[in-house]
Write a structure and sequence with these properties.
- This protein has 415 residues and is an alpha+beta fold.
- The protein has 2 domains: 245 residues, Bira Bifunctional Protein, Domain 2 (BirA Bifunctional Protein, domain 2), CATH 3.30.930.10; 87 residues, Anticodon-binding domain (Rossmann fold).
- The strands form 3 sheets. Strands 1-5-6-11-10-9-7-8 form an 8-stranded mixed sheet.
- Strand 3 and strand 4 form a beta hairpin.
- Helix 1 runs antiparallel to helix 5.
- The radius of gyration is 27 Å and the shape is elongated.
- It starts with 12 loop residues before the first helix and ends with a helix.
- It binds histidyl-adenosine monophosphate.
- Histidyl-adenosine monophosphate (HAM) binds next to strand 6, strand 10, strand 11 and helix 11.
Length: 415
């Protein structure tokens, strides 16, 4: 037997309806905020992520699925959605379209990480990217969109953590202070962080090594170094969220694991799914479009991990109704009856009723067993008497009651 690759999963019909619910809710919510769908390729030239996500990030350093294609080009499966959207925005000249451009996507992402609950090598994101506005209200709106989506799918008890990591100007000041502090503790840093210190000290704040975590606990906080403009922006975001009734906690340790962020960063974190509790992460990225060769265009967005949403719903006992269940299953008892079942099914399907009938030539008992297995709501038995009288005997599979229904009244009865 050949198994799926480590860190990937089949999504079987017993679960796929849950995915459809999450995806439909994502689309509806994004639409309410004026966002339109964008679909970018599953793979990009590696450079998109080197420049977009950043060469000193864990994603680029350790986790990308990168390979040379047959033409010798370096190709990478997308580890996240933002950089590809930014590339498409630049390449298609969308800065000349109506701004802000509001995009959403639902996509597979690929990261070579050590798989564990809530962490896969192929996972799925619902994300939004709003490009073109530097105003604080779009930050608040982006966060509100994420919150609305989480509420609509049924997630409760989730904490929104918020921080500002400033702009390039204030980051330079902060970097100096951080580097100086970390230099004092150089020997205690892990070898990777010792290397990071010269290249990108901010990444050390993300390190999962316990010694590094101990050191960074007392490191200078970026929020104390942000310039007046960034500080005013952040105050406005907080005020707008408060007015919108969105509760949040300021967490100066949130720096996010990608290099493109500026100013507002945020995460929605749950206590109910173990170590991988971050369900949604996002923030502003005012330099990304120009880093990818476009005209200076600010942006903000977030992405939600769909697997983590489903885990959270399951762990908190939330159920999703399966709207794809067969409403009526016909159990014909002979060849002529089978033809009638075929005809009735066709007519009901044309009227939007989910209908099916036996395709295996099974006896009546086995047909009921099958109907039960697929969760059919009604079983409509057609024997020779029924056929002669133009009726079916309909059994309600939930309460066991039986009703004789004329052929042409079936639609109303089932609906
Ligand atoms: P991220 O924090 O790397 O941000 O990922 C966003 C979400 O994707 C996470 O909160 C998590 O739910 C899910 N996720 C990440 N890695 C995995 C994994 N290995 N297995 C399962 N789920 C995972 C980004 O990707 C940014 N592009 C978000 C963004 C959009 N920022 C601005 N716009």
């Amino acid at each position: 037997m050949i198994n799926v690759p480590k860190g990937t999963k089949d999504i079987l019909p017993k679960d796929s309806y849950k995915w459809q619910f999450i995806e439909n809710t994502a689309r509806q919510t994004a639409k309410l905020f004026g966002a339109q769908e964008i679909r970018t390729p599953t793979f990009e030239h590696t450079e998109v992520f080197l420049r977009g996500v950043g060469e000193t990030t864990d994603i680029v350093n350790k986790e990308m699925y990168t390979f040379l294609d047959k033409g010798g080009r370096s190709i990478t499966l997308k580890p996240e959605g933002t950089a590809g959207v930014a590339r498409a925005f630049v390449e298609n000249g969308l800065n000349n379209s109506a701004l802000p451009a509001k995009f959403y996507y639902i996509t597979s992402c690929f990261r070579y990480e050590r798989p564990q609950a809530g962490r896969l090598r192929e996972f799925h994101q619902f994300g939004v990217e709003f490009l073109g506005s530097k105003e604080a209200d779009i930050d608040a709106e982006t966060i509100l969109l994420a919150k609305t989506f989480l509420e609509k799918v049924g997630i409760e008890n989730i904490t929104l953590y918020l921080n500002s990591i400033g702009c390039i100007t204030c980051r330079a000041e902060y970097s100096k202070a951080l580097t100086s502090y970390l230099n004092e503790n150089y020997d205690k840093l892990c070898p990777l962080c010792q290397d990071r210190l010269a290249k990108n000290p901010l990444r050390i704040l993300d390190c999962k090594n316990d010694d590094c975590k101990d050191i960074t606990k007392n490191a200078p906080k970026i929020i104390d170094y942000i310039c007046d403009d960034c500080s005013n922006h952040f105050e406005k975001v907080k005020k707008l969220l408060t007015v919108a009734g969105v509760e949040f906690k300021i967490n100066p340790n949130i720096v996010r694991g990608l290099d493109y962020y500026t100013r507002t960063v945020f995460e929605f974190v749950s206590e109910n799914i173990g170590a991988q509790g971050t369900v949604c992460g996002g923030g502003r990225y005012d330099g990304l479009i120009s880093d990818l060769g476009g005209t200076d265009t600010p942006g903000i967005g977030f992405a939600v991990g769909i697997e983590r949403i489903l885990m959270l719903l399951e762990n908190t006992g939330k159920t999703i109704e399966n709207p794809n269940t067969v409403q009526v299953y016909f159990a014909p008892m002979g060849e002529k009856e089978n033809e009638k079942a075929f005809e009735l099914c066709t007519s009901l399907r044309a009227n939007g009723v989910i209908a099916d009938f036996d395709h295996m030539g099974r006896g009546i008992k086995a047909q009921f067993k099958y109907a039960d297995k697929i969760g059919a709501k009604y079983v409509a038995v057609i024997g020779s008497n029924e056929l002669d009288n133009g009726v079916v005997k309909v059994k309600n599979m939930t309460d066991g009651s039986e009703t004789e229904v004329e052929f042409d009244k079936l639609k109303e009865f089932i609906k």
